[in-house]
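Suppose you are handed only two things: the residues of a chain and a line of SMILES describing coenzyme A. What would the bound structure be? This form records exactly that question and the answer produced for it, so the two can be stored side by side and reused later without any lookup.

QUESTION INPUTS
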Amino acid sequence: MIEHVLPAAAAGAETTADVDPSAPDFLERGALAPRTRRPRLTEFATGRSCARTALRELGAPAGPVGRGPHREPRWPPGIVGSITHCPGYRAAAVARACRVRAIGIDAEPHRPLSPRMFARITSAAERRELAALPWTGAHVDRIVFSAKESVYKAWFPMTGADLGFTDVRLSLDPLRRRFVVELPAPFAPVRGRYAVACGRIVTAVAVPADGLR
Ligand SMILES: CC(C)(COP(=O)(O)OP(=O)(O)OC[C@H]1O[C@@H](n2cnc3c(N)ncnc32)[C@H](O)[C@@H]1OP(=O)(O)O)[C@@H](O)C(=O)NCCC(=O)NCCS
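ANSWER OUTPUT
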């Protein structure tokens, strides 16, 4: 799925099978607390394994991908990227910083959000616009949630700042499976794509290297 949502300048890797966190090539074990439980170790190790596969795909050195104080992945110099996991699925995407300023990806189960959550993550104007879209059978509320999480994963490494769900405005094109998100100044709107398959939604956004307004 990941290849359907990434721009040409990015490389991605995904898996539905977890790696063994006791394997010697789990280079980032030390980034997690010593008592981290096995499910989280497995999720983290599999995300990092996807990250290294994506780095190799890009032709970049596939060394350890560290972890910053706000849980953000620490990519090798000159690389930007993003990692996601949801039950039964892990993925990573990377690009060269000279071509892409930031990238964010997110995967979610293809299920409706609770109405309360949907109200929390959207403005009244967004909800009006989304309600008027043609029906495609996809859970638009969950797509919006995932798209905004992707935006956050691109935004945070760029700015080091928080971003609320209603600090941005999202417009969706369900026929082309694309979306546009207006960010706070000085950032120009970012474009993203989504895919729905196998009971999952995957979204991705990429901020171009010249992505200022
Ligand atoms: C950061 C956040 C988006 C991650 O959500 P999640 O449900 O854990 O999503 P996923 O499982 O798909 O992704 C987790 C991965 O995101 C990445 N991530 C976590 N924090 C991050 C950050 N601050 N910046 C960039 N990437 C981050 C990590 O790689 C993490 O995996 P890892 O810990 O195994 O390395 C979420 O926890 C959050 O804080 N959301 C609120 C902010 C938000 O989304 N605002 C919307 C603005 S429009």
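WHAT STANDS OUT: The pocket of coenzyme A is lined by residues 43-44, 47, 67, 70-73, 83-85, 106-107, 148-149, 151-153, 156-157, 163, 165, 168 (CB under 6 Å). The longest strand covers residues 100-109.
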